[in-house]
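note to self: dont lose this again. the chain is below, predicted strucutre after it. 686 aa total, dont forget to put it in the shared folder this time
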Amino acid sequence: MKKLLFFFLFSSTLITAQTEKFPVFDECKGETLLLIKDCFFKMTKETFYNEFKEPPIIQNENFKGTVNATFMVTNKGLFKLIYINSPYKELKTEVERVFKTFPTIESAKYNNHNVEMQFIFPLVFPLIDEVEPEIVYNYEPQKEDINEVVNKQKQQKILFPKHRSQLNIPFTHQRYTDYEFALHKVNGTHTASKPYIFNDINEYVDLDSVKSQFLKPDVSSWMGRKIWNEHLLSVQEEDYWFTMDFLLDVQLGKDNSDEVSYTYNNSRILQINGGLGEQFSYSATIYESQGRFARYINEYAENNSSTFKPAFSEGLVPGRGKAKGFKEDAFDYPVAEGYLSYTPSKYLQFQFGHGKNFIGDGYRSFLLSDVAAPSLYLKAKVDFWKFQYTNIWIWGNDLRAPVVVNNEHARKYIAMHYLSINVTERLNIGLFETAISSGEDGIDGGFLNPLIFYRSVEFNRGEDSGNAMIGLTTKYKLNDKVSLYSQLVIDEFSVGNLTNLGDWRNKFGLQLGAKYFNAFDVENLFLQGEFNYARPYTFAHRSPILNYGNNSQALGHLWGANFWEVVGIARYKKDRWSGNAKLVFGKKGYDFADELVSHGGNIYQSYDIRLGDTGNSIAQGNTATIINLDLQANYLLNPSNNLNLFAGLNIRRFSPETPTPTFEKNTSVWFSAGIRADLFNWYFDF
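---
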């Protein structure tokens, strides 16, 4: 077998000393300190050779020369390719692929602390017989040089300071596929609590390299740089940085209804991000928007139900919040988001702001989703050993007209705990609890305790003082490409009626799903399948203000309750291009037009007007079959602010058993295209 002539040049970013220890493969454990170094190079060579396939273009052009691949072993034992100086894209792609197959190993150590090490791996062509590697240190500073080296490092500007910040990575399912795959490849990671922090993900994904590959170095004009490569304004000094961008979400389209001449969305977005020191970051995003959507979305926004329509408003744009009328048949809906993020140590992280959070590994979530409009929140996260513990407190609103208090929207307060535990390297379980309270006096101090069980607080304060629920999640790494996940949320469960599932008190939601990364060995092809099921009256309450909802939408699943649903998703990307196909199929039970009886699907209806105590079944009431097919194609313009060109086609079939003038059977076909900054998930699959 042909092999490459190679040697390693070591250039660690950390100061070397006699207490330095090279990274350790499993096969090298038990060796002496000197032999560990030799074993590391031996195993790196074997691992690379066993996987590397010489691209045909190298052979066809009889390439001769040396190509240097710079790589790193991180302080978590991950191999990361940093740079390769090859003129051949095919060779770059192959070397990058090979390093992604390397196993996680024991990281290097300095004074018994985990550290990172960088290496240069020269590949010499044409392929010749192997020779023993020669280890050469580029530079080993003496003690008197240490301060000079540290000062030089501080003075160097970081290429992308955001990647080392405490800012959230904007949560979109499409964007998070890569991050979840990177976390999936490493045993013992936590993936459910979202959004992720840039600095945390940067430990597993070389975000600088990912972004750099999409930059256009040949663009020299100011306008060209701002469109393709840079932020509109960027300032970076030794102890602080900030960026400012003016972004767009401009869409134009048409559906197949006669009522809508054309659809559009016109959002002008101002976004400011920054950091002060290494522990404090901040972000603010302001949207000024007008839009007219497909007919079924417009009807949702204009819903005339007395239990739904918000007061002081002419509509509710799903996921964005209150709206006022714009011209004759459109909506004006301003949105503002922002937060402060502080990480005092590697174990603790705090955020206070106005935005959204998500808990779960699926496309949907029963625990906490990003369906409703942004709200004020406080989040504290503790991450150590095998545990990640997330506390979230939300100051929410009930927008419905019947609960207006002193000419203001009624306030509600949601407190939740989520404890993620890595039981084994492959199995993760999560324990969840939440409590909802309301009132003009503010959140009860008992719900601010980050450790107490909320059910006991609710019990001691009185049944109608609050609403508490519990949940359980699991995730299992089946192999290097497939993960299985589930959720179970229990609003109420009648243990004495286990044989009678139709008892109205058996209120729970169940989710089962699977993710397949690099499906069928096709790089960047992602497949996902998911099943969701929620019993009638789940998430509802005797007093609707205490339901599991916020801003007139669900805090959990978009459909509320009383349904079953199957979701299939396929995603693929190639260079700047990406595509997404999603199919949703299910059945949901709605109330009839008079709304005199709640059939358990509308979580904003009191369960006191339920259909009955027993005999309740899934999708009871005015049963509707829902089919939603969504196809999206995107082209990345600017990797610095995630500005994209896109085109999409949405086909929705809604078939109720008992059509009414406001609840009719219809098929919607909606095409749209435009330019947008991909900053949040927008759910129209209801």
